[in-house]
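Narrative of activities, Objective 1.

The group set out to show that a structural description can be obtained from nothing but a protein's sequence at a throughput compatible with the screening campaign. Below is one input-output pair from the validation batch, recorded exactly as produced.
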Amino acid sequence: MNCPKVDKLSQYVDNLLTVREHDQIYAHVKSCDDCIRVVEAFQEEQRFLKETLQTPTLPDDFASIVLDKIEPYEQKIVRRKSKPWKRILLSAAGIVLALGLTAALNPSFAQLIGGMFGTEQVDEGLRMATESGLGERVNLEVTDRGITFKVEDVVADSSRVALSFQVLNQNGKPLDTHLNLADSENKIIVLDQNGKENNRLGTGWSEGSDYGFIEFSLREQEATDKLTIKFDLVELNGVKGNWKLEVPVDLIENKKLTKTIPLNDAKKSANGVVVNMKEVQFAPSSNDLSYETSFTNEEQALVKEKIQKLEEKFGEEKVNTSTSYGTAIQYHIENEEKKSIYYRNNSLLEEKGEHDSLRMLSGAGEDMEQLGQVAWNESYIPQKVNNKLTFVLDGVFKTVPSDFSITIKPKELKKHPVSFEYEGNFITINKATIQSEFSLRKSLIPVEKETIFQIEMKGGKEALSSELGTWILVDDKGNTYPTNQSGSILNEKDKNARYKLNLNLKTYDLEDIPEELTLHLLSVTRYYEVKDKWQVPLY
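Output recorded for this entry:
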């Protein structure tokens, strides 16, 4: 795969990625010295901050003491603004589902159900499942060291299980619910009726909320009838202790509310990409669509041939470890009135920020054995009213080898920037510098200096233009250097009506700025609109 962007490595260290992304980066980092250095720098920084920036804890009655002192002023109730949920990945084998989607809920129902699942802190699908009677008030708790861990509600159907919990002091006042599963010995284990562990687990918390949240996916475990969620917690709110709790979940009756429709491997081939529809599942908390994408036989042979040429030119290891080639699609799902209910978008498209993945809860793709073959499962908020839905294919994506290259003289860029145009990308290379970055570490010398060669580019990107992938550098002596890429495409246009683009390439192997350097683009993602819209009934 490509060397991940720096922000992705930061999210990897902070455990904020989906499981697929986490697995890919984990496998890549093990064999990439450059990324190992970046990850270790983030880890040392994280440890340093934890050790030096500890916030003192105020007494429980601090607020009331302050208010008692302010007698001349009338006390007012201030409602906190809702803030997005933060998510943390617990396992390297699952999917973290999206949180924070907001929608109006009948106030009377929210008051009736109470607790977290009657609020906007969970997605609309979970609230609808609760409203359908799938929410269960369990109120299981365990207390140690004056702190109580309490599981209040569980919502479960055939697609996922979610539960809310609280951490309470001896007076019943809610405390911070962050379980810190990544950096502590706290454990949560989910077992099915056969003792098989479910690793598709995620957790979240919201600033200002009294509740924590745990969720895990069942989309690939259709045979699951019963679950046991085992909590083995040794630290809560900074206090060491022992909190063990088991929460049983019976799915037999709830699974009857799910309807699965096989799509009989309906196939469509367009521009070298094959789309193979698998099934659609309608559950109370989500609608899930499963399908596969792959190269046609002819396209796959052509891609393999081009990859072989790149390997001969730059080395098999450097090409294979830094570059990924594959397929994907763009589609929407519409109701009987031809209104788009769900929309799967991509940043290459026009209006990229307005309809991006409309009503999507989560999406994941898993690479399969064949080059370019990907199994997709995408989950959406369910419809309140049953309707005949139709899948409509809008276009296909291909990430394939590129033969584009451009030569620069790094020391002359300041006075003579180099511009190029490639498949709708209008870019200027304006700077190439050697710089030092510092990382914190625990040693006699706490600060480590690292030399980095960085190329900076800016420009504009037309709608539907290709997306530039992985680059490799070759100096005037014939030495090759892999790069880490970072940057952004803004939802803002320049004077030429192109989306503004920033791109940075970094390599850790260049000690001195070469007189001449050639940038080779190894991969490019292209979008092809399907003129004859292919439709598949989902009913």
